[in-house]
Amino acid sequence: MAEYTSPSFDELFAGGVQPERMTAIIIKSGSGVVTRGTVLGRVSQLPESDLYAGTPIVAPVDSTKTDGSQNPYCILADSVIDATTGDARAAAYLDGEFNRDALKFGGTDTVAQHEVAMRNIGLITKRVVK
Fold first, then answer.
1. Are strands 123-126 and 96-99 parallel, antiparallel or unpaired?
2. 20 to 30 Å CA-CA from 125: which of 13, 32, 73, 101?
3. Where is average pLDDT lowest: 19-23, 47-51, 81-85?
4. Closest alpha carbon to 38 in 96, 86, 81
């Protein structure tokens, strides 16, 4: 008989009251290797002439930038995405309740710097008691 194992705890979430909304994104070339839980800022979107018009192009949130990536837009849902040398398609959360200690940012940014802006767009941060 097979041994029962419970699914591992997902450190990223801190709620579950309502399901998170997701969207397709493109992580901008030059962003490097981006991992699950990284807060991303929108720098542009695919043009109307593209088959996937309106798809947001994002990069890790970094308050020193002025290209749009200084403002939170979504949180990466995929485990690992390599956008070192080219744009990379991925999935992201547009809203939900997230463990503030599991979130990652670009540069030297911290969750404290972006909590209010994240809350304003529906990305709620919470402390998780372990």
1. parallel
2. 32
3. 19-23
4. 81
| Structural domain of 112 | 21-125
pLDDT in tens, 27-49: 999 999 999 999 999 999 999 99
* pTM over 0.85, yes/no: yes
Query: Which one-letter amino acid corresponds to residue 59?
Result: A
Task: Give the whole-angstrom CA distance, residue 50 versus residue 122.
Answer: 28
Find the CATH number of the domain harbouring 31.
Answer: 2.40.300.10
Domain total of the chain: 1
